[in-house]
UniProtKB/TrEMBL annotation:
Keywords: Cell outer membrane, Membrane, Signal
Stretches of the chain forming a coiled coil according to its record: none
Descriptive protein name: Membrane-bound lytic murein transglycosylase F
CDD domains: MLTF-like, PBP2_YfhD_N
Gene3D superfamilies: 1.10.530.10, Periplasmic binding protein-like II (3.40.190.10)
A molecular-function term among this protein's GO annotations: peptidoglycan lytic transglycosylase activity
Subcellular location: Cell outer membrane
Organism for this UniProt entry: Silvimonas terrae
Domain of life: Bacteria
């Protein structure tokens, strides 16, 4: 079962070896007020910081810290670690100013936690070949061991009071997704992991099942030295503003708004067709990227969402082909829509045209999401939804807001005041969010065309002294072309040609 809780109170980059972590990051941490640089400890992973499908740094924590530093005129030095316990220990040793994505348990002397911005719970992950009841019975009988993360030991300790045979192993150098992958491959029997990471990973590993959340929800927060009251006040003010102006809500939607759209059976069917059907058309999706700049995996995801990669697909409304084009659109683009090669190229050109025709003020990835919605429902209805957002004091340039006004186009109260009238506006929302999930899966298993270093401004530095894998699909396939990138990446990297879709992966 999938779930996602949000608190209202609120990458594989393989570095060069030989960099001594303590020598580089423990030497006399300067005050951020003197250096104008904020040193931030962060875990590598799909819910914090990683390198996304387009070779750029991404992640909820990465984006939040970047916005925080910009709002306070500070440079950032991210220091990546793979151990949750290490983040707390290094913060206590004064090796950084802030550690992010921590569970606010209030149990660490000398550390102060900021406001909560996200609520998570532990879930038990098991192989879907067994039932949940069978999984618990095996654990309660002491026939298997749970692998878990340090932050969830209290939950298991409480459970052991009722089931004395319950046993677990704490892992210090892995994240939730690695544990889920172990259950999927059979290397691990059971794992207790973060609910938000489990929701993200479930589409990549449909062979696993999950229980309901266990214990009380835990609040995520940033932590800093308890004596630094000024920094704590700045963090408090930042999150208050991020909640008030919608920044936090929009970032949550960007990384997690689509994770519950595809069920396990559909995810498994998609993975099967990726192996059996996608190879037939992959070269044409590649050509589509070369000619339009759209990530070929996005075009492939669009095609799957439309036709399940069936060149002969047809709908009762008259759209046909692997990209499900209308007769008018196919004629305008000079394509035979039943020819899969022509249909793929035409569909990609159409999406690029829709995207480029939107207001320049619309940022990515919202711009592409809106273009995909227009592909489904029509550009006129998308423009109506953006105008409704404006009238309702929402942000017409934000997909998170526009996807709330699109469904209103079926109601007379709203479509009566629009230019293009009635539309089944809920359909493009489901269309785009499902497509985003398929894109996520492809970005995990299918390599991009070419490689590039992440692009950073001169105000941001990412240090990866342990040479941890940060790239989106590093956990699922061997890394080849990106193996020589440096451990410290700063400004000057070449930006990739395809449009950036900042989504959550590891």
């Amino acid at each position: 079962m999938k779930r996602w809780l949000i608190s209202m109170a609120v990458v594989a980059l393989v570095g060069c070896g030989g960099m001594n972590e303590k020598a580089s990051d423990q030497q006399h941490l300067m005050s951020w007020k003197d250096s104008k640089e904020l040193v931030v400890l962060v875990q590598n992973g799909p819910t914090a910081l990683y390198i996304d499908a387009e070779g750029n740094y991404a992640g909820l924590e990465y984006d939040l810290v970047t916005k925080f530093a910009q709002s306070n005129g500070l440079k950032i030095r991210f220091v990546v670690d793979n151990s949750y316990a290490s983040l707390l220990q290094r913060l206590q040793r004064n090796e950084a100013h802030i550690a992010v994505g921590l569970h606010n348990d209030g149990a660490h002397p000398g550390i102060a936690f900021g406001p909560s911005y996200q609520s998570v719970s532990p879930v038990l992950v098991f192989n879907s070949s067994m039932t949940e009841a069978a999984a618990w019975q095996k654990l309660y009988n002491g026939e298997a061991t749970i692998k878990t993360l340090p932050q969830y030991v209290p939950t298991l300790t409480a459970l052991k009071a009722q089931h004395p045979s319950l046993a677990w192993q704490v892992v210090q150098d892995q994240d939730s997704e690695t544990l889920i992958q172990g259950v999927s491959t059979g290397d691990t029997d059971f794992a207790l992991v973060d609910s938000h990471a489990a929701d993200v990973a479930q589409n990549y590993f449909p062979q696993v099942g999950m229980t309901d959340t266990l214990g009380k929800p835990q609040q995520l927060a940033w932590a800093s030295n308890a004596s630094d009251k000024e920094l704590q006040d700045m963090v408090q003010k930042f999150f208050g503003q991020a909640i008030a102006d919608g920044t936090l809500r929009q970032l949550m939607d960007r990384y997690y708004g689509h994770v519950n759209r595809v069920d396990q059976m559909d995810a498994q069917a998609f993975l099967d067709k990726r192996e059996d059907v996608l190879p037939t058309f992959r070269k044409w999706f590649h050509e589509a990227q070369q000619k339009t700049g759209l990530d070929w995996r996005l075009v492939a995801a669009l095609s799957y969402q439309e036709s399940h990669w069936d060149p002969a697909a047809a709908s009762p409304t008259g759209v046909r082909g692997i990209m499900m084009l209308t007769t008018e659109t196919a004629q305008r683009l000079g394509a035979d829509r039943l020819n899969p090669y022509q249909s793929i190229l035409a569909g990609a050109r159409y999406i690029a045209t829709l995207r480029d025709g939107l207001d320049q003020a619309v940022p990515e990835p919202d711009r592409t999401f809106m273009a995909l919605a227009a592909y489904n429902v029509g550009l006129g209805h998308l423009l109506d939804a953006r105008e409704l957002a404006r009238k309702m004091n929402k942000n017409p340039d934000s997909w998170a807001d526009v996807k709330t006004t699109l469904p209103l186009l079926r109601l007379p109260k709203y479509f009566g005041q629009t230019r293009f009238g009635f539309a089944r506006g809920g359909e493009p929302v489901v269309f785009v969010e499902s497509l985003r999930t398929y894109y996520d899966v492809l970005a995990r298993f299918e390599p991009p065309m070419g490689t590039s270093q992440p692009t950073l401004s001169s105000e941001i530095e990412v240090r990866n002294p342990r040479n941890l894998p940060l790239e989106i699909n590093s956990a699922l396939r061997p890394v080849q072309a990106a193996a020589s990138l440096p451990a410290t990446v700063a400004a000057g990297a070449v930006k990739p040609a395809p449009v950036r879709l900042a989504m959550v992966h590891q």
